[in-house]
Design a protein that fits this description.
The chain is mostly helical and about 130 residues long. It contains five helices and no strands. It has helices at about 5-10, 20-40, 45-70, 75-100, 105-120. It comes from Falsigemmobacter intermedius. This is Flagellar biosynthesis regulatory protein FlaF.
């Protein structure tokens, strides 16, 4: 299941137990990070899994960027700008990974930092 499908499913299940958007975002970022890690580990034998993990992570970040770009978004403007910058960086860095010029560690670090912020932990992006 792609990250877009997971996000769509998570946000559209009316009978699902009540979960906060922060909790859903945390879970999606955790899954994306796990897929990036596994895709990177198996890149030599299954490059398609790495490409899929990058695509799914980019789709998740595109969704987050669209959300923070909305005029009614309640996050502070500086945080919204930082998150949008991370989206742009993620897109650019993913292209570098696909071309063999970079690894996925920084993408996982970004996701982890945002996850810490969603949990309210020090050093997080939120």
């Amino acid at each position: 299941m792609t990250m877009q499908n997971l996000a769509r499913t998570a946000y559209s299940q009316p009978l699902a137990p009540s979960r906060s958007p922060r909790s859903l975002e945390y879970d999606l970022l955790a899954r994306a990070s796990q897929c990036l890690r596994l895709g990177w580990e198996h890149r030599s034998s299954n490059f398609a899994s790495l490409a899929r993990a990058l695509q799914d992570n980019n789709a998740l970040w595109a969704t987050l960027a669209a959300d923070v770009a909305e005029q009614g978004n309640g996050l502070p403007a500086p945080l919204r700008a930082n998150l949008f910058y991370l989206y742009e960086f993620t897109q650019h860095h993913s292209r570098r990974v696909l071309s063999g010029d970079a690894g996925v560690d920084v993408l996982i670090d970004i996701n982890t930092s945002v996850m810490r912020g969603l949990r309210g932990e020090p050093g997080g992006c939120g």
